[in-house]
Specification:
- By secondary structure, the chain is an alpha/beta fold.
- It is 46% helix and 14% strand.
- Helix 3 crosses helix 8 (225-234) and helix 7 packs parallel to helix 8.
- The chain starts with 13 loop residues before the first helix and ends with a helix.
- The chain binds (2S)-2-hydroxybutanedioic acid.
């Protein structure tokens, strides 16, 4: 039977990263997967995470299953990190399911949404992270796209976005990127989040926020202002959050699905569907990353150390953006200032597929076909090589 299967095409991001790893060119530069690299080209472990790990190894008494919803310290730490003390305080109606990474959170959220609204259409930005459709589609949800990034103006085309979203109806889901839009780096302004809130109230659609980069764009609080505005105005919101980037827990698969409900009965019912879905798919969440994150988020000293280091990382990425934008503008006589105003790890360079593919062969710079680069993989050694190569094909 299995011989009937044919080999699938490689994943557009992971496949390219694998191709880069396999490339024997000693000068290759990997700008593919969204992983933060420090100046020496290493994805570092946060000092606070190292400390938490030492504590965990010495304190850990058991490897028995975690509760199905996850570790209590982690869940409360993530709830207040995302929603803030005011929204997450007494009287709030928020439930949570710890998940294997942000993908797990998106999958659990999708299962809950499909249970609540089986014929829902999920509205996704054009462009979006290429895994959104296969991941959410695997529970049977349908898709429509809304215009988002305009490659000519290098920014969000909000008029077209709002116009497309006029067709979203009650029972539909609008997927928004909380911050650091993947792949464009172009984020909504707070006024634009407010317009989306008006539309959700008027049209009755539900918003799902994919929050994979809190703290990597402008800061831990700044990056969730839009999401918090929606929660306070709508009284209902689902968030799929990841600790891969902001706590550097990539391989530990640490995420959470958060259900902000209008009342406790709704939040509890929503969580029960999330738990049912988790039981069907993987039963219990992996512990290690969440136990580390729970300690970092709730221990005052570890928390302060983590926030300081994260702010430095965020500052370095902003500096890399400024440097890249200035150097590209000077070298090409074209305007690359948009790179400095975009947020997070990703930006498009505006190259054609052929140009992006050509740079892989010579000089060995790997970016996605869309010319999305991981800005956080640039450093003093490779910055000028990238700038020269991009200028040479423009
Ligand atoms: C990316 O877009 O590169 C990251 O989100 C990693 C991934 O899983 O694709």
């Amino acid at each position: 039977m299995l011989e009937q299967l044919s080999v699938l095409p490689p994943d557009p991001i992971l496949g390219l990263a694998a191709a880069c790893r396999a490339d024997t060119n000693p000068n290759k530069i990997d700008l593919t997967v969204g992983v933060y690299m420090d100046e020496s080209g290493v994805c570092p472990v946060f000092n606070a995470v190292k400390q938490a790990q030492i504590q965990l190894v010495s304190d850990e008494q058991t490897k028995a299953y975690l509760p199905a919803a996850g570790d209590a310290a982690y869940l409360s730490g993530m709830t207040s990190l995302v929603f803030g003390d005011e929204l997450a305080g007494n009287g709030s109606h928020i439930t949570a399911v710890q998940t294997p990474g942000g993908c797990g959170a998106l999958r659990i959220a999708s299962e809950v949404l499909a249970a609540a609204s089986p014929s829902a259409t999920v509205w996704i930005s054009d462009p979006t992270w290429p895994v959104h459709i296969p991941l959410m589609g695997s529970v049977g949800l349908k898709f429509a796209t809304y215009s988002y990034y305009n490659p000519l103006s290098h920014g969000v085309d909000f008029d077209r976005m709002a116009s497309d979203l006029k067709a979203a109806v009650a029972g539909d889901i609008v997927l928004l990127h909380g911050c650091c839009h993947n792949p464009s780096g172009a984020d909504l302004t707070l006024d634009q989040w407010s317009v989306i809130a008006d539309m959700a109230l008027e049209q009755g659609f539900t918003v799902l926020v994919d929050l994979a980069y809190q703290g990597m764009g402008s800061g831990l609080t700044e990056d969730v202002q839009g999401l918090r505005l929606l929660a306070s105005r709508l009284g209902e919101l689902i968030v799929a959050a990841s600790c891969s980037k902001n706590l550097g827990l990539y391989r530990e698969r640490t995420g959470v699905a958060l259900f902000f409900g209008k009342d406790m009965q709704t939040a509890a019912a929503t969580q029960s569907h999330g738990l049912g879905a988790a039981r069907r798919v993987y039963s219990m969440p992996p512990a290690h990353g969440a136990l580390l994150a729970g300690r970092v988020l709730t221990d005052p000293e570890l928390r302060a150390s983590w926030e300081t280091e994260l702010a430095q990382i965020c500052g370095r990425m902003i500096a890399l953006r400024t440097q890249l934008s200035t150097k590209l503008s000077e070298k090409t006589n074209q305007d690359f200032s948009f790179i400095a105003s975009e947020k997070g790890m990703f930006s498009f360079l505006g190259l054609s597929v052929e140009q992006a593919q050509g740079l892989r062969k010579d000089p060995g710079i790997y970016m996605l076909d869309s010319s999305r680069i991981n800005v956080a993989a640039l450093n003093d050694r490779n910055m000028d090589i990238v700038v020269e190569a991009v200028a040479s094909v423009l």
